[in-house]
Fold this sequence. Notes:
The protein is α+β, with helices and mostly antiparallel strands. It is built from five helices and eight strands; from the N terminus they run E-E-H-H-H-E-E-E-H-E-H-E-E. The protein has a five-stranded antiparallel β-sheet.
Amino acid sequence: MTPRIIDNEIRLIPYYRNDAASLPWYQDRDVCKQVDNRDTPYDVELLHRMYDYLSTHGDCYYIEYKGALAGDISLRDDGEIAIVICKQFQNRHIGRRCVLDMLDLAQAKGMERVKANIYSFNKQSQRMFLSVGFTKTDEEWYEYRL
């Protein structure tokens, strides 16, 4: 995999183990609740298991915003997309721009649809996915037809 250039502010960098950057994102209880509906932060072992799974079952990238790592995004082989933006970088439309790029990647891979699992209490993510054209298909599932 090679880096993906989104625009002059955002690059997607193929996953490599970088606990110093990524572990703090997953130790934020609010972020853990938003993305995993868990009340406890990740430890290094869980972080490694998650990234190992994502990087072997699809494409997994770090999100670089203005030179700083700001989160991660993945597109699994089954069409599921997942994204995490650390709290300090939220509300800058970073996620929206990255999701749009993952839709381009999905189309290039010949996928017919992309799906996202978003918890019912995560209104911020729901609004973002709906704004880029996803439709709600079930209580916590959203889908985009390519």
